[in-house]
């Protein structure tokens, strides 16, 4: 079954304790992206990747890091989480066509993070 | 990318067609209309997209007006499981522009 898998689905942590949210897709998609969703603000892009070893900032990258060492995996790293990073996080992937994103994104089920 | 305007919420009776409108009066000639939905707090789900012709797939139909300033997503026989927030987004197709997510329309299907 084609899917994007995120882990953990729920996490409560404390300020400053490094954490990683993993994302894996089994569709051989080149494009992967991370979003956060907060009430009243819609989905906002954090980082995206067009292929292995190619990553770029989205709209709200501060406080986050990503890596793309393998095509299927795109982990989101919070080196020193703060309470304003409490949010619902989504990973997404899609094919590229002509070197560009088709806009047909497949999303994971989300990771709800609380930073105390 | 052009902005879209959608009603905040809508109701529809189960078994009836749900028609969700979207205004995008400043859409450019190379911008597509995309529709996604999000059920509760699950990951958004792609539904359909189109440029100028009407489109249909197994989930829905997309009707785009001739001037492309508005569109309607049609769920032909709504079920309770179609209760969700529906997002209408315009973007240049096959590009590296990201999708800009608004607040969407909360569609409630009533028994």
- Describe the main β-sheet of chain A briefly: 7 strands, mixed
Give the strand tally of chain B: 9
Low-confidence runs of chain B: none
> What is the H/E string of chain A?
EEEEEEEEEEEEE
What would you call the shape of chain B? globular
What is the residue-mean pLDDT of chain A, rounded to a whole number? 94
Mean pLDDT of chain B: 93
| Helix content bin of chain B | under 10%
Helical residue percent band of chain A: under 10%
Task: Give the helix tally of chain B.
Answer: 0
Q: Which structural class do the helices and strands of chain A define?
A: mainly beta
Biggest β-sheet: strands ordered side by side in the sheet of chain B: 1-9-8-3-4
Proportion of β residues of chain B? over 45%
Radius of gyration of chain B (CA) equals 13 Å
Description:
Chain A is mainly beta and 116 residues long. Chain A is built from no helices and 13 strands. In chain A, strands 2, 4, 5, 6, 9, 12 and 13 form a 7-stranded mixed β-sheet that branches. Chain A has a 4-stranded antiparallel β-sheet with strand order 1-3-8-7, with no helix packed on it. In chain A, 37% of the residues are buried. The model of chain A has no long low-confidence stretch (mean pLDDT 94). Chain B is an all-beta fold and 111 residues long. Helix content of chain B is 0%, strand content 47%. Chain B has a 5-stranded mixed β-sheet, with no helix packed on it. A 4-stranded antiparallel β-sheet of chain B has the order 2-7-6-5, with no helix packed on it. The mean pLDDT of chain B is 93. At the A-B interface, β5, β9, β11 and β12 of A face β3 and β4 of B.
């Amino acid at each position: 079954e084609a899917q994007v898998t995120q882990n953990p689905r729920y996490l409560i942590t404390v300020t400053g304790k490094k954490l990683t949210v993993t994302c894996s897709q089994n569709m051989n998609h080149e494009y992967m992206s991370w979003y956060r969703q907060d009430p009243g603000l819609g989905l906002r892009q954090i980082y995206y990747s067009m292929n292995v070893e190619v990553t770029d900032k989205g709209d709200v990258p501060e406080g986050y890091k990503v890596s793309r060492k393998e095509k299927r995996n795109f982990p989101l790293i919070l080196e020193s989480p703060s309470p304003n990073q409490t949010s619902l996080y989504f990973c997404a992937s899609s094919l590229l066509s002509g070197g560009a994103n088709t806009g047909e994104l497949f999303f994971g089920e989300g990771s709800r993070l609380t930073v105390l | 990318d052009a902005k879209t305007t959608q009603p905040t919420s809508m109701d529809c009776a189960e078994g009836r067609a749900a028609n969700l409108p979207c205004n995008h009066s400043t859409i450019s000639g190379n911008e597509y209309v995309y529709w996604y939905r999000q059920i509760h707090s699950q990951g958004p789900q792609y539904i359909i997209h189109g440029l100028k012709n009407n489109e249909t797939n197994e989930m829905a139909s997309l009707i785009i007006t001739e001037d492309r300033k508005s569109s309607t997503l049609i769920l032909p026989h709504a079920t309770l499981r179609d209760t969700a927030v529906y997002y209408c987004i315009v973007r240049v197709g096959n590009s590296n522009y990201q999708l800009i997510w608004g607040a969407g329309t909360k569609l409630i299907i009533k028994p």
